[in-house]
Predict the 3D structure of the following.
Amino acid sequence: LPQETTTTSSSLGTACDFELEPMAGYYWEPSCEEGMLGCFADGKREFCRFCGEGDYADIPCPPSSCRFVAEPATPYYWDSSCEMGKLGCWADGVHSKCRYCGEQPYTSIDCPSVVAVPAATACHFDNVPQTPFFWDPTCHVGMKGCLADGRSIGCRFCGDGDFSDVECPSDKEKRCTFANEPVVPYYWEPSCTAGMLGCMADGVHFQCRFCAARPFQDIPCPGTISVALASCSFPNEPATPYFWDESCELGALGCWA
C-alpha cells in the first residue's frame, strides 16, 4: 500500500515530491518538457518523470527508481518483466519491477549493463592484487576471473597473466551509463557525493554528474566536454519558432524555451 509520507528522489540534488509513494517508477529527467509522457509526475516539478509501469512502461527506469529504506548489499535494477513470485522481484518492498541480481541467492539472475552496484558489494580484497580487476555485472559462477576477491561473484580479474584474455573496461565504460542518452552534458566527477547537485546523473554512479545546462547551469563542464552555450537544444523539435537571446533572464516571456 502507498506509504503516507512525502517521498523524494534526490540523487541529482533535485527532487520529486509525492504525498503518496506511487506504484510506477520515477526519476529526475532534465530533458522533460510540457506535454512529454510521464513528465511533471508529482504535479509540482517539470523534470520529475514516471517510468517503467502501466502507461509509462515504454520509458526505461534507471536503478535509482527503486526505493530502499536502507541501501542493500545486493546489486539491483529495474526489470519491467518482473511479476509476483519471480525470484528477486519486489526488491525494495515497494515496486514490483525492482529486482535483485548477480549475488547469492540471486546468482541465477544475470545483472544487465545498467545496474546499481552498492558499495558494500564492490570488490573487497584483504590485500589489493597486482592483477587489474573491475566489477562485471555479467559474471556468474564458473566464469573466468569472476569471484576475484573470493566474496563477490561480480568482482572480476582482467588484462594480465591468466586473465589476459579477459578485457578490462575502458575509461568510458567505467563511467556514466544511461538507459537513455540525455541532452544535458555530463562528465565524471570523483568528488561527487550523495545529494550534491547534478551527481548520480545516470541513476547508477554517484560520480556521474550533469553540467552547464538548466538546472545545472552553475556547474561548469570540464574542457573535454562539448557544450553548445549559444544554441537551443530540444529533445523534440517544437512547432513554435525560437532563437538564442542573450538578453533573456528568468521570468522573461518566452525565455528558457
Notes: The radius of gyration is 20 Å. Residues 1-13 have pLDDT under 50 and may be disordered. The chain is about 0% helix and 10% strand.
